[in-house]
Amino acid sequence: MAKETKIQYRGHCPCCGNQQAVLRNGQGHMSKHGYTVKFGWFEGVCPGQNYQPMEINRTQTDKIILQVRTEVQSLRQRVQKLEEGTYDTTALLIPKVPFMPKPELIPFAEANIYAQNTALEVLKTKFHYRAKQGEAFADYLEVTLNAVYGKALIKVEKK
Questions:
Q1: Rg (CA), the chain
Q2: What backbone torsions phi and psi does residue 37 show, to the nearest 5 degrees?
Q3: Which residue of 27, 30, 33, 60 lies most exposed, with the fewest beta carbons within 10 A?
Q4: In terms of Cα–Cα distance, which of 152, 22, 9 is closest to 32?
Q5: Which DSSP letter does residue 51 get?
Q6: CA-CA distance, 116 to 119, in Å (whole number)?
Q7: Each residue of 5-40: pLDDT tens digit?
C-alpha cells in the first residue's frame, strides 16, 4: 500500500514577510510562527498569524509599509531637529554621568554640557539607525509583496 502524501500550503506572512504554513489547506490565515516555547507557553508570536498570506491579500502589508515609512519620516525629522538644535529636550531624562551602567537619570536642563552633548549624539544615532532599519524593512516587505501578490501558494509535501 502506498503512503499517503500530505500537502502543506505555504505563503508569505503579511507582517514579517517570511514564508510560513497557511491553515485550512491554504484557505485560512497564517499559522503561528516567530515564537519560542518556554514552560509550555508561546512567547513572541508574530501578529501575522491573524491574517491571510501576501499571495491572497495585500491589505495588512500595505498598512505596515505605510506605518513604517511614516515612522521613518518622523525619525528623520527628529534627527534634523537634533542637528539644527531645535529638538525639544524639556521632557528628556538623561544620564547624569554618560556611559555608566544603571546611571542616575536627571532632567536634560540640569545636566552639564558634556552630558547634554553626549545624550544628544546618542539620541541622534539611535534615531538614525532606527530610521535606516525601518526603511530596509519596509523595502523588504514591498519587494516581497510585489513579487508574490496574486501568485499561487507554495505546495510542499509533508512526509
A1: 23
A2: -115, 120
A3: 27
A4: 22
A5: S
A6: 5
A7: 789 999 999 999 999 999 998 889 999 999 998 888
With CA atoms as reference, report the closest residue to 47 among 37, 56, 60. 60
Query: Alpha carbon 159 to chain centroid distance?
Result: 33
Residue 124 cell numbers, joined = 541622534
Distant-in-sequence, close-in-space partners of 130: CB < 8 Å, separation ≥ 6: 75
All structural domains of the chain with their residue ranges: 6-155
Measured CA to CA, the distance from residue 47 to residue 68 in angstroms comes to: 15
pTM of the model: 0.87
Cβ of 32: how many Cβ atoms within 10 Å? 14
Q: In angstroms, what CA-CA distances link 39 with 33, 35, 46?
A: 17, 13, 19
Which run of H or E residues covers position 64? Answer: helix 59-84
